[in-house]
Write a structure and sequence with these properties.
Layout: H1 23-34, E1 39-41, E2 51-57, E3 62-68, E4 71-79, E5 85-87, H2 106-109, H3 112-123
Antiparallel strand pairs: 1-2, 2-3, 3-4, 4-5
Helix pairs in contact: 1-3
């Protein structure tokens, strides 16, 4: 197959996985969520005052929504079941306007009642279960051989006292190879 010319790039099936989701597709996923599609959140709304809430929908969509001062914010990131993604700011109403173009954001495309319904739904979201091992390391491969460099025999002293000469214990030979003992 020959090289693709620019007007064929968008139509190329090879580039389809590299394309981004559109805000309209994500809006449909949000409407399915409002219609009752099952989902799980990474953490409860009550733990977030200003941050992000990640949602995993049963249909395979993954969404990351901003929570700003305990209110529903913008959609920051989304990934479709096929792997295509959407990032806040990647879609504009008219790119030819330059800095005057407006960001197309899926949550903002919802009706005000739908936004309130979505916020209420997220406030009552069920979260992923807490991991079985809470604290410490999880070792998936069974027993682990201890490191030969691990401490043995209790705690080490944080500070070793220095003798009056400042060179170690008196009466012992020097570590520099000199046969003369260190002065007392």
């Amino acid at each position: 197959m020959g090289a693709l010319v620019p007007w064929q790039w968008l139509a190329s099936p090879a580039l389809h996985p590299l394309s981004r989701c559109s805000a309209a597709e994500i809006q449909q996923a949000l409407r399915a969520l409002l219609a009752g599609e099952a989902f799980l959140a990474d953490r409860p709304w009550s733990e977030i005052w200003w941050g992000r809430m990640r949602l995993d929908l049963a249909s395979g969509w993954q969404l990351e929504i901003a929570i700003e001062r305990d209110q529903l914010g913008a959609l920051l990131w989304a990934q479709a079941p096929g792997g295509r993604d959407w990032v806040y700011g990647c879609q504009r109403d008219d790119w030819t306007l330059g800095p005057d173009s407006r960001i197309v954001e899926p949550v903002a495309l919802l009706e005000p009642e739908q936004r309130q319904q979505l916020e209420q739904l997220l406030r009552e979201a069920i979260c992923w279960p807490v991991p079985v091992v809470t604290g410490g390391w999880v070792v998936p491969m069974g027993k682990v051989k201890p490191s030969p460099y691990a401490r043995r025999g209790g705690r080490r002293q944080a500070h070793r006292p220095v003798t009056s000469a400042g060179r170690g214990k008196s009466g012992r030979p020097s570590r520099t190879g000199s046969s003369a003992p260190t002065p007392p």
